[in-house]
Amino acid sequence: MSCDKIITITRQYSSGGHEIGRLLADKLGVSFYDKELISLAAKESGIAPEVFENADEKMTNSLLYSMSVGLYNFGNGFSAMGDLPLNDRLYIIQHKIIKEKAKNECFVVVGRCADYILRERKNLVRVFIYADLDKRAKRAVKRHDIEPSRAKQAVSKADKNRANYYSFYSGQKWGSPENYDLCINTSNISTAQAADLIADYIDLIDRRF
Question: What span, in angstroms and rounded, lies between the C-alpha atoms of 186 and 9?
């Protein structure tokens, strides 16, 4: 199946978003970016990947200050980037990488405010993946080695962190249906079925237009 779209996947923690994204990319024959962006950002910045790993999809309050004093501008880049915390530096570098790649290729990307970063592109398909808390807690225990007694708390905390990150860098509400083209509940379907649903949606809009 050929694809001329860029698909962004925003996902609740442990809803299967990463796996769905990878399966979809394989199905469409396009590149897949998730943690791969950390490696690309590390290569560009010269900072060790494991250092950026701890800062990934986390926010600080520093960017607001930087913007208020004129240090930061998306169009012109950073004039004092080395003074910023790793969280902000990673976001800025990933922002640049995502924008650059969108000029030359189609791909599937998970998280990192990619739906907001690429919001002006006409070939963008924005997907939100969610599931019931009980199902996600069980998945977290199985996939992420989380203690069953604290699974729901861990899942809810991870969701809160993602929501704060998204709101901080985009100014929009994470998970609001109006921000996405397609929302999929994976509580009762497999990740493969979810990937098929997205592929079918892309096929439908391609045939329509």
Answer: 13
